[in-house]
Amino acid sequence: MINGDVSLILDEIIRDKNFEKPHLIVIDPPRGGLSLEAVENILKILPKNILYISCNPKTQARDIKIMTEYGYQLKILHPIDQFAQTFHIENIAVLEEALDYMKTYYRGWLSSKLLL
């Protein structure tokens, strides 16, 4: 398990030639969602599954849209009302990688399209 600021940790992981593709990444960004750099780095390491917890459905939808454009499928989206009698909710989303034949396509396409 690796814990920390996604924008700092993923840069280091991407450079590590011995790093194995993770089965699961759990992300819980602040209200502003993930930075574009963070989304790009998550997509570069191609995790099998992404568990995305969010307190802002709007930024979560924005980030999930990008992830689905790069080969992930939204499998579960579940709102949780942790703060009764307020408008605040937490969303839990589970994304999984696309079919195997698509992964090869997306890996090549991703490396040519991302802004780095």
TrEMBL record:
Gene3D superfamilies: Vaccinia Virus protein VP39
InterPro entries: MeTrfase_TrmA_AS, SAM-dependent_MTases_sf, U5_MeTrfase_fam
Keyword set includes Zinc: no
GO BP of this protein: rRNA base methylation
A matching Pfam family: tRNA_U5-meth_tr
Entry GO MF terms: rRNA (uridine-C5-)-methyltransferase activity
Keywords: Methyltransferase, S-adenosyl-L-methionine, Transferase
Name of this chain's protein: TRAM domain-containing protein
Organism: marine sediment metagenome
Biological classification of the source: unclassified sequences, metagenomes, ecological metagenomes
